[in-house]
Amino acid sequence: MIIGDMADRIFRGVESVQEGVNEALFEPVIRLGVTGLSRAGKTVFITSLVANLLDRGRMPQFSPATAITAAYLQPQPDDTVPRFDYEAHLAAITAREPHWPDSTRAVSELRLSFRVRPTGLLGALRSTRTVHLDIVDYPGEWLLDLGMMDKSFAEWSAEALDAARRRAEGAAFLATLAGADPAAKHEEPAAKTLAQGFTAYLQAARASGYSDCTPGRFLLPGEMEGSPVLTFAPLPEGRAPRGSLAREFERRFDAYKREVVRPFFRDHFARIDRQVVLVDALGAIHAGPKAVEDLRRTMSDILGAFRPGRVGRLLSLLGQHKVERILFAATKADHIHHSQHGRLTAIMEALVRDARDRADFAGAKTSAMSLAALRATVEETRDHGGATLDLVRGTTLEGKRAAFYPGELPEDPAHILSPARKGAESWLDGDYEVMRFAPAPLTLRPGEGPPHIRLDRAAEFLIGDKL
Question: What predicted TM-score, i.e. pTM, was given to this entire model?
């Protein structure tokens, strides 16, 4: 078994070296990871990004646009990973009656290749080159699991139970746990009851706007649903004799890290060199101060998984990767008037300040912005009670046209973050509403992708230098 593991690692190493040499010397590959927590808009972001890179008429801030002579989709290099279903998702948002595509539930990939004409003084002496963009789509809930790798079952349990006690959604699970005896002999019905109660709590917490809800596979189990590796729950500290429920949960926790988290890191995450983290900051603000503080902590934890920094040319030839650029993007900017976009960006920058400082120190470039990958609203201004209100108008998910005023975000992000850090139950000086809009019907002219807000600036930061 040990010899087999060593052979597997050596084989992977040789493959990495071969791939690294080919990429560095012949056809460079940019591996862009796209992640975000529930309802952040990952699927729409990738779909609109690819459509706008194929037809660049709406990408004025994307500097390589004029140097690209052709862009085309190719099969992704990893035959074992599902292809991101770009065509189906594009059809959903461009249909006569458009609708939002299905959300991300597993890892998928898509390869977009560019033929790029060299520019500059020596451009005429160099031939057109090919650059590949491999987009890796994965749930943010899985990313948070990487933070479990360095924790014991006891450490993780203490943190998970502390979070459950601070959230109203954890009451039912804690009541079920109080009636269980972790030191008793393991019985599978009791294990399932606790695991199901814990999963229900995580689902409720996520629905209420909380971001840190691990293990992520409990929320998106896929083919592992019902398996023993997903049938455990946090337990209070105490005796754990052989054959007990506590000992079995500890074993399953270790198996989860070994069989679920580590393969995800090895096979997908560790090869990424550019990353965008999509954040539904408006949704967290609407959910209240506790959800905002939870989001801030989660952003810091997410960054710890990225191993940010720069890798020299020699190490890149050997297949070594670190995330060189990270974009933190507040999505759904079209849900507020453009006059408030600067305030949303400032709040986003404040939310990820700790995370960005650590990444910058490690040598990675980071940026924060607000954007809308697919613009679903138009803006208008109305007089109301002697005041002027900046509104957005769109079609609700129920099919009704509506003008909406979400409330005014504060100029100073501290007015959001300070109550959040102090554990306030609600906002004292404002009520920030959220309305979910359906995608608007589109009429695309030749050469144009779907309408967006700052998607070209996001693409410029993430991949512009490589093209």
Answer: 0.85
